[in-house]
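Predict structure. Chain length: 287.
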Amino acid sequence: MALTTRRRALTTLGAALAGTVALPAAHALAGEQRHRPRPLWRAHAHNDYEHSRPLLDALDHRFTSVEADIFLVDGQLLVAHDPADLDPSRTLESLYLDPLAARVRAHRGSVHRGHRRPLQLLIDIKTEGSSTYLELDRHLRRYRHLFTTCAHGRVFPGPVTAVVSGDRAARAPMEAQRVRRAFYDGRLTDLAAPAPASFAPLISDNWTLNFTWRGVGAFPLAERRRLHGIVRTAHARGQRVRFWATPDLPGPARDALWGELVAADVDHLNTDDLAGLESFLDVHRRT
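Prediction complete.
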């Protein structure tokens, strides 16, 4: 009887010790999930493919929007900024589509673990828009569970939202489709004759063609009002706003302009400096 009692006591002690070990472990896991750095929803990686690790560097810096320029060459969609930089091994699939599909599988349905909001893949068409888009559409169909889809005007969110920019001739074949796995990047002129957000969820334009201010001195009041008006109009229609050609050299001018963009609630801040924008948004918190 004494031996049986001793065994029971040891079993009880073991269970108690296991409980004291397991409970902190569970709390540590929950704490890790709570304190995992959150994605930076305003961060857009311009010319993302020029980084040493396209896509992956941006994701490591918690970016939620990346940009890839594409050329249609012999049925392949090659990623580069200029024709002289074309490399048959640097395809849209190898640099973006396949890695995104693998990451979404690993994260059980999301690009950033624990966050269901889609990553934006901005695809800038550098060759003739209509033919390049039709080839792009064929590529996207091979990843049917990866991309946000618009079917008969209704949007079904996916882990990645592809938005087509660049050559404007892509618009016609896109508008003709009843089912799309990509969306259109509008311009400020499109605010006057708006397309629905189910077609053009993003409005992008060149900062230097619309504003004189480059971050030095005071932001002219009329220009600040115009910026805020643009954002209000787009947001009222369910569209997001991005400007390219903003100052991107580290320094007070860039920070001042980024600060005004955040204050106006511009949705995407454009940069090639991943670490610089990450630090800026962490300080400003309104991401």
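Summary: The CA atoms of residues 69 and 124 lie 4 Å apart.
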